[in-house]
Structure formats: C-alpha cells, structure tokens
Design a protein that fits this description.
- The structure holds 2 protein chains of 2 kinds.
- By secondary structure, chain A is α/β, with parallel strands linked by helices.
- Helices cover 43% and strands 20% of the residues of chain A.
- Chain A has helices at residues 15-29, 52-59, 77-86, 107-113, 116-128, 148-165, and strands spanning 2-7, 33-38, 63-70, 96-103, 135-140.
- Chain A has a 5-stranded parallel sheet with strand order 2-1-3-4-5, with helices on both faces.
- In chain A, strand 3, helix 3 and strand 4 form a beta-alpha-beta unit.
- Chain A is globular.
- Chain B is of the alpha/beta class.
- In chain B, helix 1 runs parallel beside helix 7.
- The longest helix of chain B has 16 residues, at 13-28.
- In chain B, strand 1 (2-7), helix 1 and strand 2 form a beta-alpha-beta unit.
- Chain B has helices at residues 13-28, 49-54, 64-75, 92-101, 136-142, 145-154, 177-192; strands spanning 2-7, 32-37, 78-84, 108-110, 116-118, 125-131, 163-169.
- The relative contact order of chain B is 0.19.
- The chains are: A alpha/beta, B alpha/beta.
- Chain A binds chain B through residues 9-11, 14, 40, 46-47, 71-74, 76-78, 80-81, 83-84, 87, 113-114, 116, 119-120, 123-125, 127, and chain B through 42, 45-49, 51-53, 86-89, 92-93, 95-96, 98-99, 102, 141-143, 145, 148-149, 152-153.
Chain lengths: 167, 194
C-alpha cells in the first residue's frame, strides 16, 4: 500500500504541523509506505499545473490522507486548489480518503456551521474518484478553547489510529 | 449604495460576462460599483505564514492586496460574489480571498468573553451568483457548499439588516447561447432591482 499524505498549514510551529508529524510516525510504525506532500514546504502554486512529483505519487497511491486546519468551515484554499487538480485524474488507485483535521469551534458550532469540509471530501471529491472510496475522519473540535491535555491526547490518538484507517 | 463585486473568472470567461451584466444593472440604478477580479489582480489565495502569524494580532492585514480588499469591504453596503462552482463549493480563489480578507477586525472581532462579534453589519445586501456544471438535482444531492459558506457562514458576520439572496445557473456545459443570454438578462434585471 502506498499512502500519500497531503499537509496544508503555513506555520511549522502550528498544532496542525504536530498532527502531520504524528500521522507520519503512525503510518511508519504500522509498516505503511508513505510519502508526504507538504503544500507549503514545497511552495505549491494554485496558478500552476499540478507538480509532476505530486502526480507521480498519486499514480501509485492507494490511500489519500489530508492533514489540515478547518478555516471558514472547510479546507484551506491552497488544499481546495490542490484537491481540484489532483482529483481530476480520477485517482484510480485510491481506495480510501482520510481527513485529519482541527476545528476552532465546538462540535455544536460546526454542526450549525454546516461541516462543509466534510461534505466536500465525502461527496464532491469522492464522486470524482474511480473507486468511490469511503471517507474516514479524525477530527479535533474546539481547538480554540482546548487544554494541553486534550491536544496531547488527540496527537496520541492520531498516531495510534492512522495506521488502521488507510489501506 | 456602494457595492463590491468579487469575481473569480478562472477557466470560465462567462463569469466575467455575468459580472459585467451585474455591474450594468447596478450602475443603471445609480449604485457605485467596485470590482475585485481575482484573476486580473492575481490575488493569491494562499494564506502565508506571515498572514497566519499576524491573524490574531491587532494588525492582521499584513498583505497589501488583502488590506486593499478589506478597505473596499468596509466601505461597501452590498457584497456580490460571482464564481463557477468547484468541488461543490466556491472556487479556491474566492475561498482564499475570504480567508485572507475576512480576518479579525474586518468580518468579526474576537471578544474576551462574549465570543465572536459581527463585523459585516455595514453589508445590507449579500448576493451569490454561481454557475454549476451539474444539474439542480445533482447540486441538491452533493450539497451546495458555496451557498452555505456565503449565506450562512459569511451571513452570520452580518447584522440584522443583512439580507442574502442567490442566483444560480445549472448545467452550464450544456447551456445554449440563448440560455446564456437569458441568464445574463436575469442577472442584469436582478441587479437593477437590488
């Protein structure tokens, strides 16, 4: 199995970056081959075609893992642009889509807000994928008012669970 | 009324024609129109590290492009988005414009105790004009995340006088020249009555 992990947060000191690192650790511990595409580290430009490196990685991918903060109820614009380009190929090998995301507001606030980010992957991206892969999700709600303990517990959960979600 | 048109004509010239129709209708009715064309301005949709680090400070508008847009938003009484629906939501360009322009102090303020406060109460009319490749039924099935973002999430930053409305064109790929002309006429008359 080949897992492509796509990360999208501009700051290396961010919690989202810590989540990204624990995703990679968890996948390695579970014995998965994985490749990290960090859209900020690689200076992905939405106005240019999809980089050849990204297209090559997706060509053999069996799982696609998206690691990102949730802004204005959905994925950051840089990731929406990348998803639009990447999913145009139909991602023929991809058998599962995974989102690992943080949300500033509570579960209730996001329910009222409409959870667009979830729908975009679960319906729009999925419907473009040849294999109609299921969408699995690890979400940390209420980041804005979270405690250090809660954040630490989520990082542990991500590392423990991620290997079981991909295929 | 001063109206700000935010348009993303990426891979769709028709969006520019829609924006022109909207502008003509508004100006015919005596409104003053500002336009932000994300492609012409090469507005970067990417929230940079500098943007993000400044986000929760007193001066979050570190990028001149975003600051210029924020100034237009503060002066506007009408706000209209025009875009081709992408992955069931607004284009990445529009999403990035919202992320980088609607920062604390513009769209909302973060209070110590009361939570977020509204910042867009100067906007009386909030309008989305969206094109869809899918049929109305497909859009219903996949969920209209663009409309939800604008009419719910952005609308919540407005005040009690902020009214929102929506103009949609479905199945654009199969649309005939007549259907396109009819839609442009609908946009223009809608803008005239705003």
């Amino acid at each position: 199995m080949n897992v492509v992990v796509v990360a999208a947060h501009p700051c290396v000191e961010s919690y989202a970056t810590a989540v990204r690192d624990r995703v990679m650790t968890g996948l390695a511990a579970a014995g998965h081959d994985s490749v990290l595409l960090d859209l900020y580290a690689t200076a992905y430009d939405p106005y240019l075609p999809l980089p050849a490196r990204d297209a090559d990685a997706l060509g053999t991918a069996t799982s696609l893992v998206l690691v990102h903060p949730t802004w204005w109820t959905s994925q950051p614009a840089i990731l929406l642009a990348w998803l639009d380009q990447a999913s145009a190929s139909g991602l023929p090998g991809v058998r599962v889509l995974v989102s690992v995301t943080t949300l500033g507001g509570s579960r209730l606030a996001n329910l009222v807000g409409g959870e667009s980010g979830r729908r975009i992957v679960q319906r729009a991206v999925r419907s473009r994928c040849v294999q109609r892969p299921p969408h699995r999700r690890l979400a940390f709600y209420g980041l804005d008012r979270s405690t250090l303990d809660a954040r630490t517990a989520f990082l542990d959960r991500v590392e423990r669970r991620i290997g079981t979600l991909v295929r | 009324m001063r109206v700000l048109l935010v348009i993303d004509p990426i891979r769709d010239e028709f969006v520019r024609e829609i924006a022109t129709a909207a502008r003509n209708g508004l100006e015919a009715n005596g409104h003053v129109v500002d336009v932000v064309d994300l492609v012409v301005e090469r507005f970067s949709p990417v929230m940079s590290g500098d943007d993000r680090r400044a986000y929760f400070t007193d001066d979050p508008l570190v990028c001149p492009q975003a600051a210029a847009s924020a100034a237009l938003v503060r002066r506007a009484e009408g706000l209209i988005f025009v875009y081709p629906t992408t992955l069931s939501t607004v284009t990445p360009g529009i999403k990035g414009w919202i992320e980088r322009t609607f920062v604390p102090g513009v769209a909302f303020t973060i209070g110590d105790r009361a939570g977020a406060k509204r910042g867009l109460s100067n906007i009386r009319r909030l309008v989305g004009i969206a094109t869809y490749e899918d049929s109305r039924w497909e859009v219903l099935r996949h969920g209209d995340n663009g409309q939800r973002l604008i009419r719910r999430n952005v609308r919540l930053c407005g005040g009690v006088h902020t009214r929102s409305s929506w103009i949609a064109m479905y199945e654009t790929a199969r649309a005939t020249a007549d259907q396109r002309r009819a839609f442009l006429a609908r946009v223009e008359s809608g803008a005239r009555r705003l």
